[in-house]
Structures are given as structure tokens and as C-alpha cells.
Amino acid sequence: MPKLHLTDIVVRNLNAPERGQLDYWDTSTRRFGVRISYAGTKTFVVKLGNSRQVIDTYPALSLQDARRKALALKAAGNTTSAAKLSFGDAYERFKQEHIAAKRETTGKGYRRVMEKYLLPQFAKTPLHKITYERIIGITDRLKATPGEQAHTLATMRCFFRWCTRPPRRYLAHSPLEGLQIRLGKGRRRTLADDELARVWRAADVQGYPHGHVIKLLILWGLRKGEAGSLSWPWLDRRDRTVTLPDTVTKNKTEHVLPYGNLAANILANIPRRNSTDFLFPTRYEDDRPFSGWSKFKVELNDGCAHWTLHDLRRTFATGLAKLGVPPHVVERLLNHKLGSVTNQTNSIVTAVAEIYNRHRYLPEMRDAMDKWEVHLASLLAQKNTSTKAA
Fold first, then answer.
1. CA nearest to 215, candidates 278, 263, 261, 271
2. What pLDDT, on a 0 to 100 scale, did the predictor assign at position 260?
3. What DSSP state is assigned to residue 233?
4. Which of 118, 116, 132 is nearest to 87 (CA)?
5. Cα–Cα distance measured from residue 338 to residue 349, given in angstroms and rounded to the nearest whole number
6. Is there a single domain that holds both residue 59 and residue 105?
7. Burial 123-132 (b: 16+ CB within 10 A, else e)
8. 256 lies in a domain?
9. Beta carbons of 289 and 228 less than 8 angstroms apart
10. Do 229 and 285 sit in the same domain of this protein?
11. 128 and 241 share a domain?
């Protein structure tokens, strides 16, 4: 049975088989998929035990809502008395029903924390016997790394909240109920123009795949998980837009981003494989998005100290602001919720206005992206000129 990373674009473009029906199973949510008949009817299904249960048809039900229903049906079919449920069993269900629905990078972070710090201690411990004191006993040993300590507490708080919610109700109350997590100061690092040029040129040398990813991070201000998951069906080369589905964005909101000549040239030089829709599949598995970030980052050899991939996103936003791009346009390009950002007419974009505002600011976004590409091209030209003069 074929497996795909199901997105709205993928489901919309599935072709009907010549006869009978065909099930496509989602790689991000286990035992959930879409069945398409020879007549072209698309139906969401979930596998419960050895049988398949129909959820609803597409597009009458969106992919996002179908995934939520599938997770709820799976949870309802796996109820167990809290007195008998161990931490390890609850974590397995948490992985299948909660982590599987998250972005790849988010899910990886959850699994790392749970399996490094909590699972070795609590694997066979009854869930209701895990106390606040026992959890804090583990996290107190992480005081030397406050960021890791805060991340561990946040992950555990999320897990126990999940355990208390219906239809599970594994616990009446979370042992971390009321816990406030103090986070350290956020990073403020942005790359200077000369650093940005050095990173770009190092990416030139490194080449595909990581070098191409780095350039798109610089050009588009994406999160690394979004860039690593880029798929060919998301690209509209005629209109020069890329549409990120809500399954990969942090705020679960579809994001349409225009791009210009620099990005188009990069995309034109990415090899297209018939075995996958990913622009940057993993080295060994075509059906998984890009990975190995840390290793590739070390190999980049750009000569710039103490910067992270997310700093490129901050540099993108800061650079646009320096070029005179209005804040609300920058926020659109970053796919942030507008909230109470003041727009160019000095009116406030409220949360309600955000819901009803269907203007995507595409012309303004495209103008901003053109300015950013011109700025980057200018930086690279200066570098080339100085190199020739030397």
C-alpha cells in the first residue's frame, strides 16, 4: 500500500486508479489515510484494529479536520484504566496520536526529551504514581543548561495535559498543573551584510542539497523544517509562488510566498527525482524530508562565528525592515499572525479583522521580496568586485 506525506495539495492531486480503489496512508499520522475510487471519489479512512473505518469524503471534510477525527477515533478505541496504564504505554499513545500530527522537527524534539530523560526513569511506572517531586528531581539536574531544563519541563507539561483531556482521561489532574516555566532571553543574533555574503558563497561551494537549502533560508526567511520539507507540488513556477500547507507551518496556517529571479535560478538547478516530491529528500530515504542539519552546518565552512539557521530568519526580517518594508508586510512574509500590528494606514489589524481579511498582500510581498533579492545581489556583486581587485 502506498505511503505519502498527505497535504491538501497532495490529496487534491491524487489520481484515480483505472479500476477498484486504492488507499494512500499518511506518513505523519499512523493508520490514517485517504481512499480513492476509480470514479475519483476520495474518502478519509482510519484503521482501527484490523478494520478500516470511513471518516468522511474530501473535500466535504478538510484534511486537517479528518486528521483530528482520526486521532480522536484512535484514542477512543484505546482507552485503558489509569490505574493500569504505565508511563511507557501512555507515551506510545502520545507518539501515535499527538506527536505524529506535529511537524517533523517539533515531533523530533518531543521524542528526544521524553526518551532521554523520562522514559528510562518511568517506563514501567504507573502513570498516576508519577509526582511533581519525581519530575523536578530529574529536571533539577539540568540547571546548568537552563534552556534544556525549560524545554524538558515544557514537554512534560504538554504530555501530562494531553493525558488529562477527553476522550482519554488517563489522569484527573496533571502533576505539573500550575507550573510556570521561566525561559531565558531569546537569541538576538543577526548576520551582518558581509557575513551573509560569506554564508551564501560557502553555500555555493557546498552545493546541493544543504547549500541550496541555506540559500532558500536566506531568500525566504523560512524555518528550517519548512525549507527541508519543500515539495514540488507546492511550487507555482508560472506565478512564482510557493504555498506551504498548514501541516508544515508552525501556526497551522497555509502560507503563500512569492519569489523572484534568484530563487527561481536556485530551484531550476535542483535535481528532480521521480521517486519523491521532496526537493530535499534524505540521503537514504526518498519519502522523508531533509535531515542531518548539524552535520551539514559544520561542513558549510563559512567562517562566521556563533550563528544558527534560525538566525537567518531573524536576519531576513531585520534586513527587510532596513529596506523600508512595512512591519505588516514583514509579518506576512514570516507567516505570523498579524494581531495588533499597525499597518501602513495607521489602523490596527485586530484578531477579528485577521479572520475576515482575505487580502494576502501578495503585491506588497512580491515588491518586498524583489527588494531583498536586489539587496542580496548587490552584496554578492561587492564581494566579487573586491575579489577581482585583490
1. 263
2. 96
3. G
4. 118
5. 7
6. no
7. eeeebbebee
8. yes
9. yes
10. yes
11. no
Long-range contacts of 284-293 (CB under 8 A, 24+ apart): 287/3, 287/4, 287/5, 287/27, 288/27, 289/5, 289/104, 289/225, 289/228, 289/229, 290/209, 290/210, 290/213, 290/227, 290/228, 290/229, 291/228, 293/224, 293/228
Backbone φ and ψ of 224, nearest 5°: -65, -35
Counts of helices then strands in the chain (DSSP H, E):
16, 8
Using the Cα atoms of residue 299, residue 244, residue 348 and residue 351 in order, give the sign of their dihedral.
negative
Q: From the CB of residue 355, how many other CB atoms can be counted at a distance below 10 Å?
A: 8
What CATH number is attached to the domain comprising 49? 3.30.160.390
Q: What are the 10-residue block averages of pLDDT along the chain, 390 residues in total? A: 86 89 88 90 86 87 88 65 78 88 82 94 92 92 87 93 86 86 74 96 96 98 94 95 91 91 96 91 87 91 93 96 93 78 45 50 94 96 57
351 & 309 share domain: yes
> Do 198 and 308 sit in the same domain of this protein?
yes
Same domain membership, residue 275 and residue 242: yes
**Cα 62 to Cα 44, 58, 167, 248, distances in angstroms:** 9, 6, 22, 16
Q: Residue 167, preceding bond cis, omega within 30 degrees?
A: yes
Q: State the DSSP string of 18-43.
A: SSSEEEEEESSSTTEEEEEETT--EE
Q: From CA 40, how far away is CA 16, in angstroms rounded?
A: 5
- Contact criterion met (CB below 8 Å) for 288 and 107: no
Q: Provide the domain count of the chain.
A: 3
Cα(336)–Cα(257) distance, integer angstroms = 13
Region for 208 from its dihedrals, namely left if φ exceeds 0, alpha if ψ lies in -120 to 50, beta otherwise: beta
Are 119 and 36 found together in one domain? no
Q: pTM of the entire structure?
A: 0.60
pLDDT of residue 186: 63
Domain enclosing residue 150, as ranges: 87-164
CA–CA dist 313, 319 (Å, integer): 10
